[in-house]
Amino acid sequence: MTFDIGTHLAGLSLYDTLLAVTLSVLLSLGSIGLITIVTRRVARAHTGSPDVAAPTTSVFLFDEQRLVSAPADWRDNLDTAGQDASDWDVLRRQLLPRFPDLPELPELGPDETFRSLKARCSDDHGVLRIRQIGRRLRLTLRESEAGSLVHLHAAQLNGQRLDQMTALVEYLPIPIWTMDTSGHVLRKNAAYRALEEQLEGSSDVNVPLVRNGETATDRPVLTYRIMLDPRGRLPERWFDVSARRIEDGWQCSAQDVTALVRAELAQRNFVQTLTKTFAQLSTGLAIFDRDRQLILFNPSLVDLTSLSPEFLTSRPALSHFFDHLRDQRIMPEPKNYASWREQLNALVSAAADGRYQKTWSLPSGATYRVTGRPHPNGVVAFLFEDISDEISMTRRFRQQLSLSQSVLDAITDPIVIFDAQGLMSYCNAAYRRLFHIDPDEDLSQVVIRDAHRTWCRKATTSTGLGELLERLLTRPDRQDWTHTLQLRDVGEVSCRVVPLVSGACMVNFGLMRVAALPVETAAE
């Protein structure tokens, strides 16, 4: 059957014809649109692009310190569980590195309802907009690129941190460099380049800074000290180098320790000087550290204590040191050996406080003075001095004084002696009896005027006493002077002033009628 379109259309009215044409056009447009949508979805499925354009803004809404709403991809970063900080503090800590002008509290000024903050870095085009709506605060973070906003923000932060760390390493005042396993420097900071410029013309700067011959894989970290000698143009410099093994080489840094090395050298020289000085001392020296072990001694200690150098160089403990002294009979034998340890602890405590000073009388007849002195960091030093000659001289001097006093006491005339400063040095027993002075009274602080007042109280008349005082005080010549005094209960007494050596003088009261003294007066 033949379908004649023209025959059928000829039978249609104008309205039916327009309706048919319109339907045909609509059907064609619908088909084209459907084909376009299917084509785009297929293309997006192949390219992985989302159906909807990714957002470029993140909106946060705060009711005072409390977060009311936030993008879903930010919620993990804003979780405050187990934290003392508020929601605002958590978000502010994350945004502050990029936007340093972010308010400390979630509010704007009294007359301010909107504020726009730009990012810190010039290459960061992010913008943070703040709008105050009553007690609520709306923050809108707009990024310059589409994508996950939380990831964009983290990427910006990481980039800034990387730039900061790069700048930090670049301008650190210590040389830092990276080298391969062959010793070739791959990266270096400004301090390393400055070191290269200072040593220009010398051998390679990385020799001996680098130890490229190190092949042991079980040593991931190396630390060593080296010296750089700029061939006499500059003073030598010392560095402590730290090298950490990485996959393709080493990461290294060097700390200038020239001042430390020089200080250590000066300290060693100082210790050597002290050691030489100690070696020439006649005083025995024993120094114990804070752990109470012997760390230093001099040859005089060996001579005074008879301890062997082998024992002393073995760094004995302080208790063992004094045990050996007791065994060598170089210290007094303790009366109670059971309490010897307690006495030793008391000795150490007293030395640590600077209070220990004893005189040891040894069975051999020698006498030692032992002194304990504290030093910084818990160090204690003991000094051993042989004072046998000093003690013998002191004893002889005391014997001579006793002999001189006995001679004066044997003289029947009252005698008193004043030194060059006018202090009473000696007086005999007859003088004490004459002026009723207690035999045990100390007269070492009595001056001429004090003695003169005693004489005046005893005298019945002041005749000659004034001239006697003037002569004793001024001592116009080196000639003897004699005068007669009248003393109560005694009568006439011949007073004679005799100059002695070194500016001293003696006053002799010669009793003219000693036999006439009452018995009770002589007994006094």
UniProtKB/TrEMBL annotation:
Keyword Membrane: yes
Keywords recorded for this protein, A-Z: Membrane, Transmembrane, Transmembrane helix
Entry keyword Transmembrane helix: yes
InterPro entries documented for this protein: PAS, PAS-like_dom_sf, PAS_fold
GO biological process, one term: regulation of DNA-templated transcription
Stretches assigned to the PAS domain: 400-450
Regions crossing the membrane: 18-38
UniProt-recorded name of the protein: PAS domain-containing protein
Organism the protein comes from: Pseudooceanicola sediminis
Highest classification ranks of the organism: Bacteria, Pseudomonadati, Pseudomonadota, Alphaproteobacteria, Rhodobacterales
